[in-house]
Amino acid sequence: MAFALGAWLAELPTAVLGHLVFAFPSGRVESRAERAFVGASYGAIIGLSGLRTLAVHPVFQRGCGGGTGSHLRRCTSNAALLFRSPAASAILSGLHDVILAGITLVGLGLLVRRWLRATPPARRTLAPVVAVGAVLACLFIAVSVTNVSEASLRVQHGVYAAAQVGILVLPFAFLAGLLQSRLAQIAVSRLVVELGETPPPGKLQGALAAALGDPGVQLAYWWPDREAFVDLDGKLVELSDLPPGLTPTILERGGERVGAL
Fold first, then answer.
1. Distance, CA of 117 to chain centre
2. Are 95 and 48 in contact (CB under 8 A)?
C-alpha cells in the first residue's frame, strides 16, 4: 500500500509549487484563469497519477524474482496494480505525460501574461519568481517529452536533475522577490517622511511615481471617519477591485493607517 500511495502522490508537490508561484506575492491567486489553472493542475496530477498507478510495476529487486533465497527479502509490491500488461502501462504513462505537459504549457503562458500585465514596480518583485518559474515549467515539459519519446536514460536523468535543481532554487527566488517588495515599501515610507508632515497631494503622488519608477502609480488616502480610502478627488477607492496582478501597499505611520499605493 505504501508503494501505491507514493506512486500516486509523488507529483503532488509540483501542483503545490505552481500554486505558490501564482499566489506570489499577495498570497492569493488573483485572476480567474490562474485559479482555473491551479485547480486543473491539482485535479490532473491527482487523477492522472492515480490512473497511472494502476499499471505501475515496482522496479525489479534482486532476490525478488521467485528464485532461491527470495523468501529472505521482503519485496515491494503495488497493492493498486490492476493492469499488468506492459502495453497498458505504456499507454497510461504516455497519457499522463502528454496531458501534464499541455497543462504546464498553459501555465507558462499564464505566467508570461501576468508578467506583461504587471506594472514596472510589480515586475521588479515578480522577476525572480517568474524567471525561475518559467524555467521550471520548461524543464517539466522537457521531462514529459523525454519520457514519451523514450529518450536515452542519460538524457532523461539529465533533464530530471535540472528540474530538481530548479525546484531547489525556487525558494530563493521567493525570498528575492519578497526582499525587493520590502525594500520598495521602505523607500516609500522614507520618501513620505522626507516630504514633510503635510505635503501637497499632487506633489506626493508625483514624488512616489518618480521614486518607484512607475508613472501610473496612484495614491489613496485613508479617511478615518468613513474608514475607507479616497483618491485625490475624494472618490472612494476599493482596494479589492484592483486588476489582477496589482497588489496594494498599505502606508502606515506610528502604527496608524494613512494611505495606500
1. 17
2. yes
- Torsion sign over Cα 237, 239, 244, 248: positive
Read off the pLDDT of residues 63-76 as tens digits, 9 standing for 90 and up: 555 444 444 455 67
Q: Which residue has the cell 485547480?
A: 39
From the number of C-beta atoms within 10 Å of its C-beta (0-12, 13-18, 19+), residue 27 rates as exposed
- CA 196 from chain centre, in angstroms, equals 40
Map out the domains of the chain as residue ranges: 1-117, 204-260
Whose grid coordinates read 500585465? 117
Residue 199 has φ and ψ, to the nearest 5°, of -70, 150
Distances (CA, A) of 236 to 39, 45, 203, 253, 254: 34, 43, 20, 21, 24
Residue count (the chain): 261
Residue 237: strand pairing partners: 229
Model pTM score: 0.67
Asked whether the beta carbons of 3 and 58 are under 8 A apart, the reply is: yes
